[in-house]
Amino acid sequence: MSRLVLRGARWPGDVAIEGGRIASVGSVPAEPGDEVIRCDGDIVTPGLVNTHHHFSQWMTRGWAVGCDLFDWLATLYPVWARLEPEDVEAAAAVAMGELALTGCTTAADHQYVVPGGDDSVFDAIAAAARTIGIRAHIARGSMDLGQSKGGLPPDSVVEDLDAILASTQAVHARLHDGERIVVTVAPCSPFSVTAELMTESAALARRLGLRLHTHLAETLDEERDCVARFGNRPLDHLDELGWIAGDVWLAHGIHFNDEEVTRLGRTGTGIAHCPSSNCRLGSGICRVNDLIAAGAAVGLGVDGAASNEIGGMLPELRMALFLARQRTMNPASFMPVDALRLASEGGARCLGRDDIGRLAPGYRADVVVWPGDDLADVPDSLAGLVLGPERTARHVLVEGSHVVRDGHLVGADIQELRRELARRARRLWPEGKSLA
Ligand code: ZN
User: In angstroms, what CA-CA distances link 406 with 105, 223, 370, 389, 402?
Assistant: First the structure.
């Protein structure tokens, strides 16, 4: 078997890959038969791990621009209810294409609107993942608490509890392979899901050996709603339902008090920090440093493009660094390497993966080569990558195979994917017109 060597990178040196795994890192002596990719002056990192996304929201960028979370959701639920599986596949392809081009090799998706209960939307997401070539952790999301029962979403977009559980089992049986496609069980949020669905979902996930994911503590509105509805703060509510544990990761996790941060750390619960989305919706700033210090697993997420608008992975590292420093008012509290760690090892831990997220022998060869041409003047190349101008990855490898080569997707043409997405998205515009 021939060996692939990424040779001459400015950081961290050479990387040798054999049989889809990283064989060695640093200074790799040449061997006869090596296949060599020159990386002189470039920067090599582990493939980035995105821990929270809603791929289908690429169909609704630029909507409800001045709204907070609840108003934004109320505007978009009926629009998302009109999505067809083909729309979801088109959106997922653009979402994963953009992620791959910005260094992401593993992405978690949370599809919680399942129009008409048609769970072929998950097959559509898996098909897009195979086209682009990155790993997808596909969360079978769900909502069963409609407005008539006091929930936020209209009744037309919620499903029946038994149907959700049966579908989740079927999606797992159809798609889960544990490496490329990993199925997760994911009721949406305390304001759109009954306590019974949370409990039953946890039991199902633990029976199947799957991880659990949901949104929690994203806004103060949610906290007030949860206290009014259940008499509990969001974390206590989930804790009572068996959801604060090492096989769970939570999206956002902003509004926690000191005791709750300690509890999340003690249990090893994961948090998907989504800095751009939180800024776009004015939701608050996650206590990233405190959560890491407490021992919680903290990863990075772009969140759906309807609240992120960019959908790229690399820009989130810079945003995470900026927000952590604003939160602590201490620039030394969060360095470029901390942002990279969040987006790689931290994310892998959230997703329960001990085989990805590091450039170390034995790990799967999910690797990004970033162009360093315009950073040759910057003394710390990692600072240049995280703080400096945005860029597209030069090469992205998954399991040692290219998914991005010389700045272009191998499996698809991103411009074509964008054209198809726009064609589909425009029919959702009010009366076929632009919003402004
Ligand atoms: Zn979300």
Answer: 16, 46, 10, 18, 10
18: CA distance to ligand 1 center in Å? 37
Ligand 1 centroid, distance to 54 Cα (angstroms): 6
> What's the order of all strands across the beta sheet hosting 408-409?
43-46, 367-370, 395-398, 401-405, 408-409
Tokens 């969001």 sit at which residue?
234
End-to-end CA distance of the chain: 57
> How many A from CA of 177 to the centre of ligand 1?
24
For 295-326, the pLDDT digits (tens) are 999 999 999 999 999 999 999 999 999 999 99
- Rounded CA gap, 401 and 31, in Å? 20
Q: How far is the CA of 432 from the centre of ligand 1 (A)?
A: 27
CA distance 286 to 300: 11
CA–centroid distance, residue 251 to ligand 1 (Å):
6
CA of 406 to the centre of ligand 1 (A): 32
Q: How far is the CA of 178 from the centre of ligand 1 (A)?
A: 23
Specify the fold of 48-350: TIM Barrel (3.20.20)
What is the Å distance from ligand 1's center to 2 Cα?
42
pTM of the model: 0.97
Where do the domains of the chain lie? 4-45+363-414, 48-350
Q: What's the CATH fold of domain 4-45+363-414?
A: Urease, subunit C; domain 1 (2.30.40)
